[in-house]
Specification:
Blueprint lengths: L1 H10 L26 E5 L7 H12 L5 E3 L5 H17 L3 H9 L1 E6 L1 H14 L7 E5 L5 H5 L11 H13 L1 E14 L19 E3 L14 E7 L2 E5 H15 L7 H14 L5 H4 L6 H4 E6 L5 E3 L8 E5 L16 H6 L13 E6 L2 H5 L9 E6 L1 E6 L6 E6 L2 E6 L7 E15 L8 H6 L29 H4 L10
Parallel strand pairs: 1-2, 1-3, 3-4
Antiparallel strand pairs: 5-7, 5-17, 6-7, 8-11, 8-15, 9-10, 9-14, 11-12, 12-13, 14-17, 15-16
Helix pairs in contact: 3-4, 3-5, 8-9
């Protein structure tokens, strides 16, 4: 009896009454204002059966109205309705609604793709006080949860585990992280009657955007796709292995119910794709330097060509210190190496810079398993541009926060251009075990100068991509339909 009383009192700290969500509901009198009101979004297809088990437990402990199944309700509609109702209640003088509005925190359970979906929606809502987000690791890589201290193993779904997680959410600190906008432009196939038209397997994180080019040179591109990411964009061998994994999982979902077996399958595919003997199995046309001309822009605001070593077969533009299930491709360069390579600072998640790293083959990738292992550090950049060479090869594998696709490349006169730029910031919740570092932590250790920091309104509005950068279009680009497990 005593334990139940303690549990019930604790749960009141997270409880949100129904009338906050449902306008026509009668106003409830609450005994106390929750100190950490939460809304929970769960991808019930993630983690095999775990997503389904988790939503049952959350709905048992909290109000059903504050726990949502992403297969049934999209977060953009949920949050738009919720914030509209809270604004109405606050205008009527409801103090409970005002405090919930101020203290609200979000929990999202799923893989990195699911977490990115919610982050994109929060970004697009342009809220005055956007709620911070905690992530429950239900995917295969779980790079977002791991970066902020939530672990990379699938969690327990019993009451004790969920109560422990809720306590961690209440104690978690807020951290800002950079969000990144990606624009991909290409020509429509000449046989197509639809403009724009997307590659068949384009990820959910990119969607078609019809625009009238301001620049006359831009008229050569008839298709534009835009989206956003928070952790990484990669191209090359890592994306090819990921694409093979996702294709196999789509064909045989019954074989992918266990996180450990999924990871073993991933390693097996890396072997069968031939990346451990890349110099023998893969032509030079797969090397990044043969595929694309790469330009970067630092804080100075001038484009410069980035020389890519001929041996590099995979390139990663990284924001967080976690890639492929917790590996850190950038590592921790010494101050001497930073000066030698013209690197601005240690990798920070809110500095407005991406770390660009290259890999030669799968053996090079395995170096990351050693304590001080890292890839080939190429640059830190505020913007990155890939302009693909004509005739190098007919396709390239790309990946955006865990979502891979097979991108057709220029034939004859065709062109493909990918540009990545800083788009603002979102707020994450981080535990004491957080490995991600921000400017605030770096300043306290005297490792970064204040002028290197980036403000959240840094959106580069004075260029040709300003219209695309107004939002991610997350309500469209992250919409999960039948293929909800694609992450």
């Amino acid at each position: 009896m005593k334990n139940n009383l303690v549990k019930n009192n604790m749960l009141k700290e997270f409880y949100i009454p129904t009338y906050i969500f449902v306008p026509e509901s009668p106003v409830e009198k609450v005994s106390q204002i929750p100190s950490c009101p939460v809304i929970v979004f769960i991808n019930t297809k993630s983690g095999g059966q775990l997503g389904h088990d988790l939503i049952v437990t959350y709905r048992k402990l909290l109000n059903n109205s504050q726990v949502f199944d992403l297969l049934e309700e999209a977060p953009d509609k949920v949050l738009h309705k919720l914030y509209g109702n809270m604004e109405r209640l606050m205008r009527d003088g409801d103090t409970v609604a005002a405090e919930i509005h101020r203290r609200l925190r979000l929990i999202v359970a799923g893989g990195d793709g699911t977490a990115g979906w919610l982050l994109g929606v929060v970004s697009d809502l342009k809220l005055v006080h956007p709620p911070p987000v905690a992530t429950v690791p239900l995917g295969t890589g779980n790079n977002l949860p791991y970066s902020f201290g939530w672990g990379k193993r699938n969690p327990g779904t019993d009451e004790k585990s969920v109560l422990s997680f809720l306590q961690s959410v209440r104690q978690a600190k807020e951290m800002k992280i950079d969000s990144w906008h990606i624009v991909m432009k290409m020509e429509s196939p000449k046989s197509s009657t639809c403009d724009p038209i997307a590659p068949l397997d384009l990820p959910h994180s990119l969607h078609a955007f019809h625009r009238v080019p301001n620049n006359p040179q831009d008229k050569e591109y008839s298709c534009t796709f835009r989206g956003g990411f928070w952790n990484y964009f990669s191209m090359g061998m890592d994306a090819q292995v990921s694409y093979a994994f996702h294709s196999e999982r789509k064909l045989h979902p019954e074989k992918f119910k266990n996180q450990l077996s999924n990871q073993k399958t991933y390693l097996k595919l890396a072997c069968t794709q031939g990346w451990f003997c890349a110099s023998l199995c893969h032509p030079m046309s797969r090397n990044i330097a043969h595929l694309s001309k790469v330009k970067i822009m630092k804080k100075s605001g001038k484009w410069e060509t980035l020389e890519i070593p001929q041996s590099i077969r995979s390139i990663v533009c990284l924001n967080l210190p976690s890639f492929s299930g917790g590996l850190n491709p950038w590592g921790t360069p010494s101050e001497r190496k930073q000066r030698k390579r013209d690197l601005v600072m240690p990798p920070l998640v809110d500095d407005g810079l991406l770390e660009i790293v290259g890999f030669k083959d799968a053996w090079h990738g395995l170096v990351l398993l050693s304590p001080k292992g890292h890839g080939t550090r190429l640059a830190q950049a505020h913007r990155v541009q890939f302009k693909f060479h004509k005739g190098a090869t007919d396709h390239a594998y790309m990946r955006l926060d865990g979502e891979p696709w097979n991108q057709p490349l220029p034939k004859d006169d065709g062109k493909v251009l990918v540009e990545i730029s800083h788009a603002g910031q979102v707020k994450m919740l981080a535990t004491k075990n957080c490995i991600a570092k921000g400017i605030h932590e770096a300043l306290s250790m005297s490792t970064v100068h204040p002028e290197s920091s980036s403000s959240s309104d840094d959106t580069d509005d004075d260029d040709d991509f300003a219209e695309e950068r107004k939002n991610f279009g997350a309500a469209l680009s992250f919409r999960y339909m039948d293929d909800v497990t694609k992450e």
